[in-house]
Every structure is written in structure tokens, then in C-alpha cells.
Amino acid sequence: MTFRARHLLGIEHLAPDEIRSVLDLADSYVDLNRRTMKQSDALAGMTQINMFFENSTRTQSSFELAGKRLGADVMNMSVAQSSVKKGETLIDTAMTLNAMQPDLLVVRHPSSGAVNLLASKVNCAVLNAGDGRHEHPTQALLDALTIRRAKGRIQRLTVAICGDIAHSRVARSNLILLGKMENRVRLIAPPTLMPPGVAEFGCELFDDMRKGLEGADVVMMLRLQKERMDGAFIPSEREYYHRYGLDAEKLAVARDDAIVMHPGPMNRGVEIDGTLADDINRSVIQHQVEMGVAVRMACMDLLARNLRAERGRAALGVMA
């Protein structure tokens, strides 16, 4: 398999063949996770530290489960009780973690670029579990796997991403990945939730949801990220749902076999109609959760292979 990265900090630096390698390996882990015995020894003897500066039930539990199924020793660091809360800098934290000799470090941080900074200070492999408004690479990869399994391909599809584009690292990572894989991407949002300069990514922009959904193969809804909003971006949730909430009437203009996605957590009756979210014929939201564990297993497996190879080369150099 082709996967050259030392860290997984974003989709931006991954080549299409590396993306395919992650998805192909993740497919095999989907099969493993559906068996009675779900254990692998891919990370046996390795230590994984999960460090989440932001709360995330889905992502943190998914990474924890992925590490344990691969045989790693997994530690969840409680940031609320860590030295960071006592004034320690991020670089000091990185040096402290590095001294513990971990092999994999999974980090979520509210500041864009914080994970890249940590990666430059440690000797282990670092996985970005979401940093500010920058990227959320494993979410885009699990979305790609979900789409590929539902549609049979991850190229030449029309994908509509609708909602709070401006504050969404999920949208950014998906936009980059889908573009690399030659898809037609449409962004649908009110002007207040559309980031400046986004058209440079080669996507189509819509503020009319029905026009944006016409003929779409995939409809990806996004959560209103109120915690990142510092002003009034929408008149009201009721008005937002009327114009940009996905329901059966709006979905009717998409393709008959269009799938509905949402990274979670969902605000039912705000971004999406609850009945539609639970419709097993259209919604793949629960599949996304399942694919998340498999994709994170694949990412950690591939990074661990590269880390072992790097350490092997270094050992040979010392011996020489």
C-alpha cells in the first residue's frame, strides 16, 4: 500500500493514491469489526495517547476503540486536569509527552495549527483529530469510505455540502478530499455562513438550497457550530430550518438514490428533519459512525508501519 506520511495532519498533503490506500485498508477493518473476535495485533507493543483539548464523544471514543482493537496500550489524557490548565505552554506539554516515549499521539485542539506545532516537537506519529477551523482529516476519510461503499466509487460524483461552511473544519477537509478525487462539489449556505475565498477550491456556491441539491448524488449536512460563532449569523433556528434544513421536500430535487450524511452531533429540526435522519433507505449517518472506527484503525496502522520502518533505518544507521 502507498502511504508515505509520517503524520496525519490534514488531507491537503495526501496524494490520491494515499487516500485510496487508507480506504482499501479500512475496508478490511470494517470486516474485522463485524466479527465476533475484533482484535488485531497491528499496534501490539505500541502506546497511543489521546489528548483532547475540546470535548468530542464520537471522535475520542472512536480513536480509543480503534487503538484497543489494534492491540495498542491506550491512554486518554484529561486536559481539564492537566498542566495545560495550570499555565503550561503547548510546547512544554509536547516535550513532556515526548519524554513518555509514545508511538501515536491523537490530538484535538481549538486552535488551527496547534496540532502541526505539536507534531514538530515530538518523535512519534501525530494524528489530527480536529484543529480549530483548519482540518479534520479522519472525518473526511470516513465520509469518503461511506460514500464509496454506498455508491461503489469515490470519483465523478456530485456532492452537496450544506450548512455552516464558515466554521466547519469537516467541510474544509471534505472539500479538499473530494476535489482530489475528481468530484463535483457544491457548497450551500447563507452568505453569512460562507467563508471568503472558498470559490478558489473549485467548487460551486449556492445560497438557494433547492438549486444546490438538484441532481446531487450525495447530500452532506453540517451542524450549526454556535460555539464558534461570535455574532448573529442566522435570523433564527426556525428560519434557518425553513431555508436550509434538509427535509423530504428539498431532498426530492436530488437524485432518487442520493444518500444523506451528517458528521454529528445532529440538531434535529434545525439542520435536518428527524424522520429523514432515521430513514434507512436514504440516511447513512449510522454507517459513518461505523466507518469512523475502521478508518482510524487504518490510519494508525499505516502510520505505525512508517514509524517502525523509520526506527529500523535509524537503528541500522547507528549499527553501521
UniProtKB/TrEMBL annotation:
EC code: 2.1.3.2
Pfam families linked: OTCace (PF00185), OTCace_N (PF02729)
Limits of the Aspartate/ornithine carbamoyltransferase carbamoyl-P binding domain: 6-148
Cited SUPFAM superfamilies: Aspartate/ornithine carbamoyltransferase (SSF53671)
Reactions that this protein is recorded to catalyse: carbamoyl phosphate + L-aspartate = N-carbamoyl-L-aspartate + phosphate + H(+)
Aspartate/ornithine carbamoyltransferase Asp/Orn-binding domain segment(s): 157-302
Keyword hit for Disulfide bond: no
BP-aspect Gene Ontology terms: 'de novo' pyrimidine nucleobase biosynthetic process; 'de novo' UMP biosynthetic process; amino acid metabolic process
Domain of life: Bacteria
InterPro entries recorded: Asp/Orn_carbamoyltranf_P-bd (IPR006132), Asp/Orn_carbamoylTrfase (IPR006130), Asp/Orn_carbamoylTrfase_sf (IPR036901), Asp_carbamoyltransf (IPR002082), Asp_carbamoyltransf_Asp/Orn-bd (IPR006131)
Annotated L-aspartate binding sites: 86, 169, 223
UniProt GO cellular component terms: cytosol
GO MF term list: amino acid binding; aspartate carbamoyltransferase activity
Positions contributing to carbamoyl phosphate binding: 58-59, 108, 136, 139, 264-265
PANTHER family per UniProt: ASPARTATE CARBAMOYLTRANSFERASE, ORNITHINE CARBAMOYLTRANSFERASE, MITOCHONDRIAL
Subunit text: Heterododecamer (2C3:3R2) of six catalytic PyrB chains organized as two trimers (C3), and six regulatory PyrI chains organized as three dimers (R2).
Known function: Catalyzes the condensation of carbamoyl phosphate and aspartate to form carbamoyl aspartate and inorganic phosphate, the committed step in the de novo pyrimidine nucleotide biosynthesis pathway. Reversibly catalyzes the transfer of the carbamoyl group from carbamoyl phosphate (CP) to the N(epsilon) atom of ornithine (ORN) to produce L-citrulline.
Similarity annotation: Belongs to the aspartate/ornithine carbamoyltransferase superfamily. ATCase family.
Record-given protein name: Aspartate carbamoyltransferase
Organism whose genome encodes this protein: Cereibacter ovatus
